[in-house]
Design a protein that fits this description.
The protein has 191 residues and is an alpha+beta fold. A hairpin with an 8-residue loop joins β6 and β7. The longest helix is centred in the last third of the chain and has 25 residues. It is globular, with a radius of gyration of 18 Å.
Length: 191
């Protein structure tokens, strides 16, 4: 990485890297057409399920494929703890951690599946970073398309990620939790 490539200043103990360098696995979801869908079977997670740092379980709007279709199309199963990143708006690059769901799952082609090397960065910190304006600016700079912005997986892999030391990651996550707890208390006192 060249000096001019650094998106913004970070503390000296932190390191810059790219998404490609912090994953044990990165892949795309599957191309599932409406003719491939069924009423039950393996659940299809779509870009609409990926919220801004959260998984949106849109009850009653589930889509499935059969075991047979899964095998015939050579689908890529996703698992609890996988990080899903939407490559379509709004906004492009939003991410969530897949929670434990009662059925087997796959995801759509416009979702990237990431399994992080958690010795480098925690899933929670990574997802919090994807909510930041700095990350979203980097994503936008790497999008293509005139009518509908999107980011290719190869451009997504090149997005810079700041990596704090592990003890600093723990401190940051504890502070985020503390702030969210304070916000929850403020909200409860308003109601």
């Amino acid at each position: 990485m060249k000096e001019g490539d650094i998106p913004f200043e970070i503390p000296p103990s932190w390191k810059w890297t790219t998404i490609k360098n912090i994953v044990n696995y990165i892949g795309d979801g599957d191309w599932i057409e409406s003719k491939d869908q069924s009423d039950k079977g393996i659940r299809l997670i779509q870009t609409g399920n990926i919220g801004f740092g959260i998984f949106k379980d849109k009850e009653g709007k589930y889509h499935y494929i059969s075991e047979n279709t899964f095998s015939n199309l050579g689908c890529n199963e996703i698992f609890e703890g996988d990080i899903l990143i939407s490559r379509l708006p709004e906004p492009v690059g939003r991410a969530c951690i897949l929670p434990k769901l009662p059925e087997r799952t796959i995801t759509a082609v416009d979702c990237t599946i990431i399994r992080l090397n958690e010795e480098l960065i925690s899933k929670e910190l990574f997802v919090y970073y994807t909510i930041s304006n700095k990350y979203l600016e980097l994503i936008k700079e790497n999008c293509t398309g005139t009518t509908r912005l999107r980011i290719s997986r190869s451009n997504l892999e090149k997005i810079f990620i700041p990596i704090p030391p592990s003890n600093e990651q723990t401190r940051i996550l504890n502070k985020i939790k503390e702030l969210f707890d304070s916000l929850d208390n403020i909200f409860l006192n308003l109601v």
